[in-house]
Q: What sequence folds into this?
């Protein structure tokens, strides 16, 4: 079966304007968008640049915009898309080359929320830091984030104010703030309650629609707000 | 990563925006139903001033004024924080918002307080 892909191209070294290249390739029924990109790179145009690694929806490398919607391309089957498939880099991040974007700022913001367990007590020597199944449930829907950037790239609040931490960093923040074993809220309040923190979200829900893992960053942000209000007032 | 204003917050402003929003709903309904229910025959000066001369109504209308001004101007300030990136422009608009708020507040309170029942 033949499919046609319209792929965004940009190479800052050639000075050529960004444009689209169209490739019509032979594909198999079971292929994903990433498989089609691999086919193009390996057999049609080796200069095409994009990120991919695990091919199993875990590493978060291959998020791109497919037919106007952010997707983990390794999880998006070609069979779910009709007609010509347009593949573009994630919006609002600077394009390095073709489908590859600069996510340095994205990860810098993640580091700002301290995405690790903060607990000042010494860990038990005979077992891990355990918690009850009920407590564990609180952080369901947050730990699954693969940091692909699809949500932050789809966020209108981020488009207009790129200082905003964005849904991905805030979802990860709740992963730890919501963890009953974590004692780090004091250390995170400064950034979460800042001008670039949770108050910049306007519950537009684009992030929920964009997430390839079907997570709900907006809900996490609302829970963070509740915690901050309880903490501050 | 500069210009990351940490610590200036927004928790109180966000909370008060929700609180004033909730309180404004019944006040707005009462205000609209009482002040504008005479629409069929046009607003009558006598009827409105008679109502507004009641001290309880004055309290209600001044609460309405204060809450609506805060809610509306705080909303504008939130929009400024989203869209205006240049610090001095932001400060200038913020100052204008505060100034407009104060002027409208004084005018509004003076108006409500000075209404007397028709003779």
A:
């Amino acid at each position: 079966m033949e499919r046609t892909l319209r792929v965004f191209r940009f190479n800052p070294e050639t000075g050529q304007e960004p444009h689209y290249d169209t490739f019509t390739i032979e594909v198999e029924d079971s292929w994903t968008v990433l498989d089609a990109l691999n086919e193009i790179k390996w057999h049609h145009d080796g200069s095409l640049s994009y990120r991919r690694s695990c091919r199993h929806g875990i590493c978060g490398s291959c998020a791109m915009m497919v037919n106007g919607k952010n997707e983990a391309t390794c999880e998006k089957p070609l069979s779910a898309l009709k007609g010509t498939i347009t593949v573009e880099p994630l919006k609002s991040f600077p394009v390095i080359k073709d489908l590859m974007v600069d996510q340095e700022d994205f990860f810098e913001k993640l580091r700002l929320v301290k995405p690790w367990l903060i607990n000042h007590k010494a860990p038990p020597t005979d077992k891990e830091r355990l918690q009850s199944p009920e407590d564990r449930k609180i952080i369901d829907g947050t730990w699954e984030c693969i940091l692909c950037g699809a949500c932050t790239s789809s966020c209108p609040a981020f488009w207009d104010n790129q200082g905003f931490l964005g849904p991905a960093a805030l979802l990860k923040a709740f992963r730890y703030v919501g963890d009953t074993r974590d004692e780090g809220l004091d250390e995170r309040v400064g950034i979460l309650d800042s001008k670039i923190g949770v108050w910049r979200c306007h519950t537009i829900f684009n992030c929920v629609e964009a997430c390839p893992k079907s997570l709900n960053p907006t809900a996490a942000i609302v829970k963070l707000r509740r915690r901050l209000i309880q903490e501050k007032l | 990563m500069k210009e990351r204003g940490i610590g200036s917050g927004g928790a109180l402003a966000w909370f008060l925006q929700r609180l004033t929003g909730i309180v404004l709903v019944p006040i707005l309904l009462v205000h609209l139903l009482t002040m504008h229910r005479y629409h069929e025959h046009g607003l009558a000066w006598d009827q409105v001033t008679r109502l507004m001369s009641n001290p309880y109504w004055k309290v209600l209308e001044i609460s309405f004024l204060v809450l609506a001004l805060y809610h509306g101007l705080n909303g504008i300030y939130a929009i400024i924080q989203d869209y205006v990136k240049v610090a001095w422009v932001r400060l200038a608009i913020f100052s204008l918002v505060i100034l407009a708020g104060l002027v409208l507040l004084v005018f509004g309170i003076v108006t409500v307080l000075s209404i007397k029942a028709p003779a």
Summary: Residues 11-114 of chain B form a domain with the 3 helical TM bundles of succinate and fumarate reductases fold (CATH 1.20.1300.10). The first helix of chain B runs from residue 11 to 35. Chain B has a mean pLDDT of 85.
